[in-house]
Amino acid sequence: MCRGLELLPITCLERAKELRALFGSFLLKSDHSISGQPRNHSKLKLSEVAEPLKWKESFESLLSSQNGLCLFRAFLVSEFSEENIAFYLACEDFRATKPSKLAPKAKRIYEEFICLNAPREVNLDHATKAVTQENVERPTRFCFDEAQSKIYTLMEKDCYPRFLKSSMYLELKTRTG
């Protein structure tokens, strides 16, 4: 299972803090961007301010937003379930892997997330684990599809609703909405 904040890339933690400050500062007429450069308010897009509101439309809209994904990942760290999004993203990356590198990458993903007592073991039923284990023995770009689908559904039905009710999201939504 997730070992805590040390497994989350520092850039993601920093980005989550920046997002909170950034979206809050829009309403407080900030004169500087995250980078510290002067901000031209005439170029400030409504879409930047309204972005957190779109995340409530669907889980897919949250994941398709770089800022939303980063904040959701930080939320999952606080819930001790960051391994779910890490596995989902590893599977997305795996699909883009060159055929010559599929086998070692499949083995690494399997050992990190799926095998018994994996360091970041995701919650999968025995049947899905067995099918995935067989698939990894003869890897294709789609060998993790069933497991990834189960984790996506778990996050969509369990983690995503909790994220939308979290103080992290509600405070950001209140400041931007």
Describe the structure.
It comes from Nothobranchius furzeri. InterPro entries: RGS (IPR016137), RGS_sf (IPR036305), RGS_subdom1/3 (IPR024066), RGS_subdomain_2 (IPR044926). This is Regulator of G-protein signaling 16-like. There is one protein chain. With 177 residues, the chain is mainly alpha-helical. The protein has a domain at 82-157: Regulator of G-protein Signalling 4, domain 2 (Orthogonal Bundle). 66% of the residues lie in helices and 0% in strands. It has helices spanning 10-27, 46-54, 59-64, 66-78, 82-95, 102-114, 126-137, 145-165, 167-176. The protein is elongated, with a radius of gyration of 18 Å.
Summed up, what is this model?
The chain has 177 residues and is mainly alpha-helical. The chain has helices spanning 10-27, 46-54, 59-64, 66-78, 82-95, 102-114, 126-137, 145-165, 167-176.
Strand content: under 5%
Specify the structural class.
mainly alpha
Class of one domain, according to the CATH hierarchy?
Mainly Alpha
Rg estimate, integer Å: 18 Å
| CATH H-tier superfamily of one domain | Regulator of G-protein Signalling 4, domain 2
SSE order in H/E notation? Answer: HHHHHHHHH
User: What is the percent of helical residues?
Assistant: 55-70%
Low-confidence stretches: 1-5, 22-46
What global shape is seen? elongated
Distance between the termini: 35 Å
Biggest β-sheet strands, sense, barrel: none
CATH architecture of one domain: Orthogonal Bundle
Overall average residue pLDDT: 82
Number of helices: 9
- Looking at the structure, the CATH topology of one domain is Regulator of G-protein Signalling 4, domain 2
Number of strand elements = 0
InterPro entries: RGS, RGS_sf, RGS_subdom1/3, RGS_subdomain_2
Protein name: Regulator of G-protein signaling 16-like
Pfam family, one: RGS
